[in-house]
Specification:
Blueprint lengths: L4 E2 L3 E3 L6 E10 L14 E11 L5 E5 L4 E5 L4 E2 L1 E2 L7 E6 L3 E11 L7 E5 L2 E2 L2 E2 L3 E5 L8 E2 L5 E2 L2 H16 L2
Parallel strand pairs: 1-14
Antiparallel strand pairs: 2-3, 3-4, 4-10, 5-9, 5-12, 6-7, 6-11, 8-10, 11-14, 12-13, 15-16
Organism: Streptomyces incanus
Protein name: DUF4352 domain-containing protein
Length: 173
C-alpha cells in the first residue's frame, strides 16, 4: 500500500539519480505582501518545497503554478493558493550539492488546517516526475487529543512530530 510522506521527509527520485525533494516548514503565518481579498475570513499558512541535487550533474528544475496542489481538512478540499505571494522555482539549474526552495502561501478555514496534504510534481530537464504526496498539519502536535469517551491520548500527528524532531536533532550533531 502506498503511504504518503510526512511533512519534513525527503523523497528521492529513482529516475533522476541524486535528486530529492521535501515539503517542510508547514506553519501558520501571514504573506509578505499582504492578504489577497479572496482569502477574507481564512487563515493563512506557508509551506516550503526544497529540491536538493546530490547527483553528479546539474539539473534544470521547474516548480511553478499548477505543479503543487494543497488540500486541507478530512475531506481533502482545495486550499486557496496565493500565487501573488508565493515564490516558485522557474527554470533554475540546481548544481551538485546545491538546493533550491519554493515558498507557497495558502489559506483555508482554521478548523481544517490540522490536516494538510501537499502534492508535488516536478519538471526536471523538461521531463515530468511522478507525483509525490506529503501529509501534515498545523496545530496537530500541540497537545493530547481527547477521545469521545473523554480519555486523553496522544494523537498520531503528535507522535510523528516528536519522532521527526528527535531525528532532526540527531542529524545535526
Amino acid at each position: 500500500m502506498y503511504e504518503p510522506n510526512v511533512v519534513g521527509d525527503w523523497q528521492e527520485y529513482d529516475e533522476h539519480a541524486g535528486l530529492r525533494v521535501r515539503v517542510h516548514r508547514l506553519e501558520a503565518g501571514e504573506p509578505p505582501r499582504g492578504r489577497d481579498d479572496a482569502a477574507q475570513g481564512l487563515t493563512y499558512f506557508s509551506v516550503r518545497v526544497t529540491v536538493e541535487n546530490r547527483g553528479e550533474r546539474n539539473v534544470g528544475i521547474h516548480l511553478e503554478d499548477g505543479q503543487v496542489d494543497v488540500r486541507i481538512g478530512p475531506d481533502g478540499e482545495s486550499a486557496f493558493l496565493d500565487w501573488r505571494n508565493s515564490q516558485f522555482i522557474e527554470g533554475f539549474d540546481v548544481y551538485p550539492l546545491r538546493r533550491a526552495t519554493a515558498v507557497l502561501y495558502a489559506a483555508g478555514p482554521e478548523t481544517s488546517l490540522s490536516h494538510v496534504d501537499v502534492q508535488v510534481q516536478l519538471r526536471v530537464d523538461e521531463e515530468w516526475t511522478g507525483r509525490r504526496l506529503w501529509s501534515g498539519g498545523i496545530g496537530a502536535h500541540e497537545g493530547p487529543v481527547v477521545t469521545p469517551s473523554g480519555g486523553g491520548r496522544e494523537g498520531l500527528a503528535h507522535q510523528i512530530g516528536v519522532f521527526l524532531q528527535k531525528q532532526a536533532e540527531e542529524g545535526t550533531a
